[in-house]
Amino acid sequence: MTTASVENARLRKKYARRHAASRVGVYGAAVVAALVCAMPFLWSLVSAFKQNRDLYNPNSNPFLFNEPATSDHVRYLLVDTPFLTFVWNTLLVALAVVALTLVLSLPAAYSLARLNRPWGTPMGIAIFLVYLVPPSLLFLSLTRVVVGLGLDDSLWSMVVVYPTITVPVSVWLLIGFLRAVPKDVEEQAMVDGYSRLGAFARTVLPLVFPGIVAVVVFTFTLTASEFVYALAFVSASPKMVVSTGVPTQLIRGDVFFWQSLQASTVIMAVPIALLFNLFLDRFVTGFTMGAVKT
């Protein structure tokens, strides 16, 4: 072998070792980040099955079962409290708000993105600015609206109010995504005989499906975790959602049913985490496209 060949082989081995070391470093950092992010969930899962004397012993490892595990606290949550009612109420409200948000935001975003009116951009910015108003400033006036409609202490009060949070950001997101779809696609469908509505339904909607998924996931998770409006508009326990019902039932004065609280956290976190992971690619695509194509 010539000197040049030997030197090339040495350089290739050097770069291969460097590449392997960098890959190990990246994967190692990813594993550490995953463990750090998963640690609160693991701690909640372990705490939900701990006995009282294990939980309150300062010398016990919080991530291990120092005493035999027990399911009494999970059973108490599911049997002795209306937790399942709270979950059902949350699901009903979330699905209703998701449907209402899509019905309102899709036509609004389409008109602002496609009709080329001079007021389109200012209107889109104004709609998004509504989302930036803190709920603590709005719930007093919205309470008057809810009472005027006769919806106080009703699940419908949250269905009416939550779109004030979800629609503005959904419209802004969908505007960016609709602008990323070429107009030629829609115009070709209209040349083939479809109306504007038919062209929108048959050609545009399939292309903006990642954006719709992003809106659905965002709306569902925000509705399931919202606290201020749920606390202000509903005080009857059978009509409460998880975000307000669980603290009401499991925090009594200075007594915390800690293991049951952690069990409720795990039960609610698992389906939302699965929903996120199921649509993760489309969710990320929807938000990134909506962010850069406005």
From TrEMBL:
Give TM segment ranges.
20-43, 86-113, 125-147, 159-182, 203-236, 256-280
* Signal peptide segment: none
Q: Which residues form a coiled coil?
A: none
**Membrane-topology descriptor:** Multi-pass membrane protein
Where does it reside?
Answer: Cell membrane
Protein name per UniProt: Carbohydrate ABC transporter permease
Question: PANTHER family this protein is in?
Answer: INNER MEMBRANE ABC TRANSPORTER PERMEASE PROTEIN YCJP (PTHR32243:SF18), MALTOSE TRANSPORT SYSTEM PERMEASE-RELATED (PTHR32243)
Q: What PROSITE patterns would the database entry show?
A: ABC_TM1
Family of the protein in this entry: Belongs to the binding-protein-dependent transport system permease family.
> Which key words tag this protein in UniProt?
Cell membrane, Membrane, Transmembrane, Transmembrane helix, Transport
Give start and end of each ABC transmembrane type-1 domain. Answer: 87-279
Q: What is its main location?
A: membrane
Pfam families per the record? BPD_transp_1 (PF00528)
